[in-house]
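We were asked to recover a plausible sequence for a given structure. The inputs and outputs are reproduced exactly as logged, with field labels preserved.

PROBLEM: sequence recovery
POSITIONS: 360
GIVEN STRUCTURE:
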């Protein structure tokens, strides 16, 4: 089978991560890079592919069969539209765009042109997340009552040497918690309303360093997500899942999901239930079963899926509308934190048909 030729739009930190993954994947090959940064030229040369300053020129001259967009969020929509206009299937990094308002024209353009649009919420390909969803969706926990999720770690001081990372919009809510919000939607169903409070008391940059978010899921469950990038703590997906070798793994959980019949701790996949189903209640012993799944690199699985999508053999597992719903929740969180109000999310009206995250 001929490998799918892929044009990389944006070869910064995550674009290069995609290139690394592609090197190990025979279903695809890197065809070219588009990135105006001077260091991208040397990087492209070392990868043995041409480098272009403008992505339009790369798409027109190289005519890759597919494109990955790993440029800054603001460019996702215009670069995606350029792909849609040329009939080039795309993998757009998360978040789908900087705002839902700019994501919608991209989604419409791709749909109009019949061009596949996959969004890089790669954790959905992680077997742990897939198993958690399967358990919850199969009803093993009964009716979901409450969810407690954590994203706490300590970002290095040098991370903030780039001025844009200190500004609103570049903080842990949009950059990091968007993943957790997508996970929670995927596992527990749609989010119908949010409240939030943010703080920048520790780093004192304009951007938040800490946030507490309250959710109401469409199925009625309530949830919280505690976010802090200034916490010397192990409770985040990055520091507990072992998904990315860049981060040391701690044998802890970051999501606790409780229901009327049982509870699940993720990523350790600990399923808590009463030993005797007939004898339930607060005086009865609970048992803990640790479920196992075969490990799988979600980025490798995602690129394989993207190749199948580009060849027309699969439908995108994370569609533009689905990803826009996660972004909509993020925007509601930011608005709720700014105003102190509860934000209702009418995604059906604003974004339309979804998705793999239907309410429980
Ligand atoms: N899925 C994940 O877990 C994950 C992790 C990190 C980043 N990301 C996403 O990847 C994207 C890039 O993030 P990053 O951390 O690699 O940022 P980065 O700043 O390291 O890289 C962005 C690159 O885009 C390039 N760029 C700027 N303007 C461009 C243009 N007009 N055309 C092409 N390239 C252009 C920059 O020169 C830079 O090399 C963001 O959308 C981010 O949210 C996703």
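RECOVERED SEQUENCE:
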């Amino acid at each position: 089978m001929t490998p799918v030729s892929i044009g990389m739009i944006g070869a910064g930190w995550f674009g290069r991560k995609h290139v690394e993954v592609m090197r190990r994947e025979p279903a695809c090959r890197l065809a070219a890079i588009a990135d105006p940064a001077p260091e991208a030229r040397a990087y492209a040369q070392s990868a043995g592919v041409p480098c272009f300053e403008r992505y339009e020129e790369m798409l027109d001259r190289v005519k890759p069969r597919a494109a990955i967009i790993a440029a800054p969020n603001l460019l996702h929509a215009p670069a995606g539209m350029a792909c849609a206009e040329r009939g080039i299937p795309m993998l757009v990094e998360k978040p789908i765009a900087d705002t839902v308002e700019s994501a919608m024209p991209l989604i419409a353009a791709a749909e109009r042109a019949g061009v596949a649009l996959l969004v890089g919420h790669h954790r959905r390909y992680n077997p742990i997340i897939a198993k958690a969803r399967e358990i919850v969706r199969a009803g093993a926990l009964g009716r979901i009552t409450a969810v407690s999720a954590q994203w706490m770690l300590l970002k290095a001081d040098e991370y903030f040497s780039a001025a844009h990372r200190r500004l609103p919009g570049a903080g842990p809510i949009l950059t990091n918690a968007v993943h957790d919000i997508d996970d929670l939607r995927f596992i527990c169903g749609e989010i119908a309303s949010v409240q939030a409070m943010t703080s920048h008391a520790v780093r004192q940059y304009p951007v938040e360093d800490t946030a507490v978010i309250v959710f109401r899921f469409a199925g009625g469950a309530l949830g919280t997500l505690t976010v802090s990038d200034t916490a010397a703590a192990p409770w985040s997906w990055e520091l507990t899942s072992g998904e990315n070798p860049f981060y040391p793994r701690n044998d802890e959980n970051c999501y606790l999901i409780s229901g009327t019949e049982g509870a699940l701790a993720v990523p350790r996949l600990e399923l808590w239930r009463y030993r005797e189903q007939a004898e339930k209640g607060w005086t009865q012993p609970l048992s803990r079963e640790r479920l196992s799944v075969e490990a799988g690199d979600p980025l490798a699985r995602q690129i394989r899926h993207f190749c199948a999508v580009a060849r027309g053999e699969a439908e995108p597992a994370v569609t533009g509308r689905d990803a826009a719903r996660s972004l909509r929740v993020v925007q509601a969180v930011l608005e709720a934190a700014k105003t102190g109000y509860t934000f209702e999310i009418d995604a059906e009206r604003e974004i339309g048909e979804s998705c793999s995250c239907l309410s429980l």
